[in-house]
Write a structure and sequence with these properties.
Layout: H1 4-30, E1 46-51, H2 58-74, E2 79-84, H3 89-101, E3 106-109, H4 117-126, E4 131-134, E5 145-149, H5 151-168, E6 174-179, H6 185-198, E7 205-210, H7 216-229, E8 234-239, H8 242-255, H9 269-277, E9 283-285, H10 288-303, E10 312-314, E11 317-322, E12 325-327, H11 332-338, H12 344-347, H13 353-358
């Protein structure tokens, strides 16, 4: 008869052998791959996605859903912790602290205040949590990565587009410049790009304004004052995004005067409708899907313990800077509708249907 102790020892040895074999198979299937749930607990990692404001509709409508969708594709078991600070830098700090307390493996942030966000970077990095700056850079302390469109190029594109139009139409008068938030480093880059186009153009810059928190209402109020100050002298307005551009257009309409060419940036749905109606001259197509998905890939790489390489460097930060496209009524069909950036069913409603038909948008 077999000794009971010998039988137990044999069973334990067999179980241990099976466990080791299964472990070896598991480690081999994930080792070093770029997707499909990498090692280091990335298959169930938490990733923070912290956006800056509600003044721009893009964050709720596009950035957040697209980022979450891409993370779900890369890592079905991962969780995205999404928060919007609603233009409150202190609130964003609290949201970042909360995300870190929940054990996030990577933190993606579009900062309300680029200078204040340095504290968030410092805190996260002290806990070995990588930070990806999203859309807006953090110059004071380098983040681990930066994903955005080339903001200085955006400013140059919208500024030059306006200059070219004013010269082609031989418009008389000067330009108002409506910049973005003074606490946003990306707004500073856009502003620099605008000046690179406007300053050497020979067209007078009547006045410029840094719009607190990118608020359209504040842009509208400032432009209203300039309409009174420079009656019949405003030939165009270079606005840094669609929200401030929309505020400028509202000011001219409220004053009962003809709306001059007004620029924008972000290709928001409302801006597309204003371009169709002839109220807004241009916007910038920077497909949010491009940056949201790129940020998701980078965040997931960091969550796996990898260090993705940048394709450029900005503010001493490895970066991916994508090239934007200027959009006017002439190319809106190809740039925004044929590309799938916007759906005709969403834009071509009511008073805009006729313009869509004229441009072959359906």
């Amino acid at each position: 008869m077999t000794n009971p102790r010998t039988r137990v020892a044999a069973l334990v040895a067999a179980a241990l052998s099976t466990t080791l074999a299964l472990s070896a198979c598991g480690s081999g299937s994930d080792g070093g791959g770029s997707g499909g749930g990498g090692g280091g607990g990335a298959e169930d990692a938490k990733i923070a996605f912290l956006m800056p404001d509600l003044a721009s509709t893009r964050y709720e409508q596009y950035d957040s859903p697209l980022f979450k969708k891409k993370i779900a594709e890369l890592c079905p078991g991962c969780e995205v912790i999404y928060q919007n600070a609603d233009s409150d830098a202190s609130k964003q700090q609290q949201q970042a602290d909360s995300a870190l307390a929940q054990g996030v493996k990577a933190l993606v942030i579009d900062p309300v205040d680029s200078a204040a966000a340095a504290t968030i970077v410092q805190t996260a990095q002290s806990q070995d949590v990588p930070v990806i700056a999203y859309d807006r850079p953090i110059p004071k302390i380098p983040a681990d990565y930066y994903v955005s469109f080339d903001n200085e190029k955006i400013g140059a594109l919208i500024g030059q587009s306006l200059v070219d139009d004013l010269k082609a139409t031989k418009a008389e008068g000067g330009i108002l410049q409506v910049n973005g938030s003074p606490t946003d480093a990306a707004a500073g880059l856009i502003k620099k790009g605008i000046h690179s186009a406007i300053d050497p153009s020979g067209i007078d810059l009547l006045a410029e304004y840094d719009t607190p928190d990118w608020q359209p209402e504040k842009a509208q109020s400032w432009v209203s004052g300039q309409i009174t100050k420079f009656p019949d002298q405003i030939a165009g307005v270079v606005a840094a995004n669609d929200g401030t551009g929309g505020g400028a257009i509202a000011a001219f309409k409220a004053a009962g005067v003809t709306v001059p060419p007004v620029t924008g940036n972000d290709a928001e749905l409302a801006a597309a409708q204003r371009i169709l109606a002839g109220d807004q001259y241009n916007t910038i197509s920077k497909p949010i899907k491009t940056v949201a998905e790129a940020a998701a890939v980078v965040a997931y790489d960091f969550a796996q313990g990898k260090t993705p390489k940048g394709k450029a460097t900005l503010f001493d930060t490895p970066s991916q800077l994508f090239t934007p496209e200027v959009v006017t009524r002439d190319n809106i069909k190809e740039a925004l509708f044929d590309s799938g950036a916007l759906e005709a069913a969403d834009v071509c409603t009511g008073e805009y249907a006729k313009a869509c038909t004229e441009l072959g948008i359906s």
